[in-house]
Structure formats: C-alpha cells, structure tokens
Q: What sequence folds into this?
DNA sequence: GCACTTGGTGGGAACGTTCCCACCTCGCCA
DNA sequence: TGGCGAGGTGGGAACGTTCCCACCAAGTGC
C-alpha cells in the first residue's frame, strides 16, 4: 500500500474538475483564477498529496532553482579551515528562504573542473558561487562566457569585472600591524597567503601600508609566503627566523598558518607573546583555545556567504542588473598572543 | 556571437545525418551502433559543442543523478565541529567518480524539514544521506515510506533498519577509559553526548563497560550529559566538579566538549593532566593545538563520508539490495592531556 | 528460394510541466 | 441590440530527452 502512482497535474485537474492550466495557475499563484476554482484545486492537491515535479517544470522554464557552490578542494582546507564551513553556512541560510537548492562542488583537479563546466552546461544550475579564486583561474572567465550568473567570494584582481564580495583585507591587515606597533614592536614580520591570490596580496599590502604610515620601511627579509596551511605557516616561520632572527612580531594572514607559526616559535624556544607577538586573520573559533589564545582579525565569514548568495539570486532574477562589488568590515580581536 | 542557441540532440542528428535515437545510443554507450554512425555522431557532437540536457533526460528516466546530504544545522555545528566538514569531504570524494551531484541541505527547524521532504518529493534527488540522527527523528521514517534510498551516518538505535555507517563508538570509548585506568586514574567521570542519540548512549556504554571490566562501579555522580557544544562541555564539567570533587579523569564524548571542559577545569584551578586527565573523541585537527594537547579517540570521519555515499549509490542502482550496516574502527591517539 | 535470425536504424510516443492562443461569458456602453 | 473589453478557462504545442516498436538489409540454415 501507500506508494501508488505519483499524481500529476492532470490527476489534480480531473479531481478538481478543471483544466490543467488552471491547476498550473493556482500553483504558480496567478490571480486569474476564480475563487471556486482555486478552492477546488487546493482541495484536490491536498487530497492527492500532490507535489509538482520540478524536473518537468525545469524542462519548460529552463530554470532549475539551484545554484552551485564551488570550493577548490585542491587547497584541501574544508575541515581544517573553518572559513569554508562558515561560507557554506551563510550561503545555505540565504538560500533557505527562496526554495533554491545548493549544489556543493568540491573541485580537486583539472578533470573535475571539466566535469564542473559540463555539469553547468548541462543546465543543472541557474548560477554559480566561486570561493577562493586564484589570479589565473580559468573558471570565472569560462562561466562568464557561458553567460551564467556568477558571483565570487574574493576576486581575481582589484579589477574584477564579475560581482564579488570580500572582507576588508587591506584595512584588517593594517589594523593588525598598527596594533603591533602600538604594542611597541619594532621588527614586525608577515607571513602572507599565496601571492597568486588577491587576498594574499592585499593583506600583504595592508602590512606595508601600516608600516609606511608609521614611517618604517617594509624590509623584504620580513616577508615570507605561506599557503594557508598549518605546515606552510611552520615553514614560513622557520625561514623568517633565519632571515631575520631579531623579529619581535608576526602578522600571519590566516589563523591556521598562525597556529603553525606558533608551534615553530615554541620549537625554537621563542615565547609568545614575550619574545614574539603573533596576530592571525579570520578569528576562527579555535583562536580562543590556542596556547596562548590568538589575537586575530575577525572577518564576517558567514555574512560573506549570505551576501554572495543574495547577490547571485538577484543576478539570476535580473541578468541585466549591474555587477556588484561589496566589501565587508573587519575588526581586531585582541587576545594573549600579542 | 558565441551564444546562439544551444544545440539539441536533433541538431546533432541532422548534422551527423542520422536519427535522434542513434545519437542517444552513442551518448549512452550502446553497442548497437555501427562504427561509421558512431564516428559521425561523435564528430557532430564535437563540432557543435553539444552537451546533453540533463533535465530533459531526468524527466524521462526519472533519475536526477544527484543525492542530498542532510545536516541538522539546529545543532549548529558545521563550522565549529569538523566532523561534518570531513563527512562532506568524504561524500564528495566518493561521488566525484560517478558524476553524481551533491545537494547540501542544512536543516534548521521544522519548517525547513518540510521543505526538505517536499524537495525530495519533487524528485530532485535519487537518494538521501542523513547525518547525526536522533532517536525520534521523523525524517528517516518519512524517507523510508517514500521509498527513497536512504543511508545514515550513525543510527537511531541499535535496531536501525535502514542502511547505516558509524564508527566503533563502543570500542573507542572503552579504549579511552582503559587508557585512563592504565594511567592509574581512579575516579573516572564522563561527559556524554545527547542521550537521545545513539552515539551519545553508546559512548556512555563504552565508559561503563570498561569500568565494569576493571571491576569498578559506574557511579552516577560521575556522569554528566552534554550536547556536543563547547558551552555544554563547560556546563557538564562544572556539574561534575560539584557532584564529584574528587574526580581525577574525564572521558568526554567529543573534542569540542573536551575543550570546554578543559577551560572550566583551568578556571577551577585544576591542572590537566596533573589533577585531572582528559580524553576527547573525534581527534579533530585542533586536538593537537589545545593546551595541553588533547588525547582523543580517532574516528575515520572522512571514510564515514565515502562509505555512506558508496552504500547509497549501490542502493540507488539496486533498490532490492539488502540494507548494510558498517562499523569502522577507531583508535586512541595519546597526547599531553592524559 | 524461403523463412528466420541478427545487427543496425529511425520515427512516434511519452515524461509532466508551462506558455500561447483561442474561446466563452459576462457587463457595459453607445 | 450589437459591439467590445475583461475576467476566467482549457486545449494544443513545446521543452529535450529515452524507450518502444517497427522496419530493413544482410546473412544463415534448410
């Protein structure tokens, strides 16, 4: 029992004693339906437990009511990197109200990327959200060419033509460095993110700006490049200590790298914050629990998620709408490490 | 330029000088096609840059090649709880090979749950993965009634009829407690997960079993219930310290709660591990970075993800296949906290 | 030389919607 | 009384596939 055949719009029409079109109108909220007809249809729908088949609808409307969220897993950080989880949560929140489905695509390598563009070409999504884009990422361009609404969390460069949303990386980084200066630190190093990413370059620029502001030179010995991983943070810290043994502070472009850096400092016998002050970026939930608790630049990660989703929905609804560029504020959360 | 009209199977057929059906056969890898016809079709596909419309295909095959992964966000833990991220990663890995799309659904409240069952009824997914199920969760039963292939990470009870995959919670918990006993601890408390979840009850039972094994009584004063959150861990630790001030060890059913518990212990002036040894569960990536580093029961979270996905794919392919029940091994990772 | 298989092929129908258009029935105005 | 707009309605066509079936040609066995 139970199963039977799923009712279709025809079944409902027959039951309600009206035509297919009228049922469709009721479902889609058209006003051109008499009250009696509407009531009859609604009753039939309830009795039959009818749910419209969205695949059939999608075929004729060529809308799927779903969007893709693409996360590069090559940077294998979902899991150790709370940033992505928070973005996912934000996106999901913004989508929940609109009955739009979320397709999650973790892209590992080249092959999967092809699969991704295929899957987009197959018309399985109405739009795409891209997280963590690199400067020479081919994907945003491809999507743009396909005419598919696309919104980025982050940007390829300051000249990004696509709609995008990101935190105030420049201001956040500068605030971190100003804080270190105010604490009396004199040799302030930095561990950057990947320099083929705008976020990496911009946070580095923030470090430079704050130093310049204070009339200090940005010494090349004080810069090491990381890759947003813990191991990368350790490596970068090691090379900084070699190049500039007298450093007394580090601004690290992510909390995960900061954790690696602190581990390396401990290994080398440097105390945090006594010998070396450390400031991270992200204000991940674990920043409160490191030893010592990590000072960090807070960025509204979840809000980045809700915002890209909303911008995308808007762009899907009106493809002619002008591209948007939204910057969200950061704030410094001071803890024991600085 | 560029855009034009998307080619359909008809366009391809015309270009290749064959019928629609032959094109379809080539696409779907049927052997009943002559080599010439196949070559012509393949050439036409390449020239026209044709990609089949999966929505149209889905309408006739009533398959969508996508599965839903449902995560209760009411327990708002994606983000602070790496478990979910790892499961997502595993699921995505297993799905990547099969061109199956992943629909992520974070379910907050009752309303969204209705939306979920609707969206399933709308035939938007071929199967469902459920994570973190509670004893009286209505969802698994609903899905079962709808005849939709469903696989759980975890289970509602030991008698779970649906296919499910989980870690050896009983053995893992017992190993943790045995370890504490071996360390000479005598008053071993536990902070449990929610007791309306099998995972909560089973880890508690593991604690009991190990104590019984050692000829010790499982004193009710030594049990406090948590909710898998950090704040819950703090609360539980506080009530344990009140009820049993002489405790010298705690087995905590999750790392996140263990972090809370350790914070509370520090606040009360108890040293870890000198005064109180702490063991967590999950071996989250941050366990290495707590102060002191946290001893924890490792569970193969990502593998749980790949496994539920594989079981689900199997069940979609063959709905008559017997339900599976898979238990994955755990192991104890000893660090400074015990 | 005839029936009978077997590999290969293509057209019609179906999947369950929405959209376009034609139509019907009012009430209103000249 | 006749024309006309407007509210309400329903049937046909279309969306782009796959599946069923009919068909055709070239063998194969008697």
A:
């Amino acid at each position: 029992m139970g199963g039977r055949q799923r009712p279709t719009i025809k079944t409902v029409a027959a039951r309600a004693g009206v035509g297919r079109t009228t049922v469709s109108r009721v479902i889609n909220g058209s006003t051109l339906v008499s009250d009696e007809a509407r009531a009859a249809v609604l009753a039939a729908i309830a009795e039959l437990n009818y749910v419209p088949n969205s695949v059939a609808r999608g075929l004729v409307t060529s809308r799927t009511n779903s969007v893709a969220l693409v996360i590069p897993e090559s940077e294998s950080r979902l899991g150790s990197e709370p940033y992505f989880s928070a973005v996912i949560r934000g996106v999901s929140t913004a989508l929940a109200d609109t009955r739009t489905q979320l397709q999650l695509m973790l892209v590992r390598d080249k092959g999967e990327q092809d699969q991704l563009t295929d899957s987009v070409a197959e018309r399985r999504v109405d739009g795409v959200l891209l997280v963590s884009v690199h400067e020479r990422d081919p994907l945003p361009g491809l999507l743009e060419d396909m005419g598919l609404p696309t919104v980025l969390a982050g940007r390829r460069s300051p000249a990004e033509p696509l709609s995008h949303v990101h935190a105030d990386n420049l201001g956040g980084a500068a605030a971190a460095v100003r804080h270190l200066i105010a604490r009396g630190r004199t040799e302030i190093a930095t561990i950057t993110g990947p320099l083929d990413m705008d976020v990496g370059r911009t946070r580095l620029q923030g470090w430079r700006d704050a130093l310049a502001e204070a009339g200090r030179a940005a010494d090349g010995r004080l810069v090491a490049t990381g890759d947003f991983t813990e191991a990368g943070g350790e490596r970068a810290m090691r090379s900084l200590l070699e190049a500039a043994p007298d450093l007394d502070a580090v601004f690290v472009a992510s909390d995960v790298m900061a954790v690696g850096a602190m581990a390396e400092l401990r290994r080398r016998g440097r105390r945090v914050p006594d010998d070396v002050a450390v400031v991270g970026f992200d204000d991940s939930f674990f920043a409160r629990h490191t030893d010592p608790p990590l000072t960090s630049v807070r960025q509204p990660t979840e809000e980045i998620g809700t915002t890209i989703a909303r911008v995308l929905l808007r762009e899907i609804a009106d493809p002619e709408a002008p591209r948007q560029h939204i910057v969200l504020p950061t704030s410094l959360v001071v803890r024991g490490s600085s």
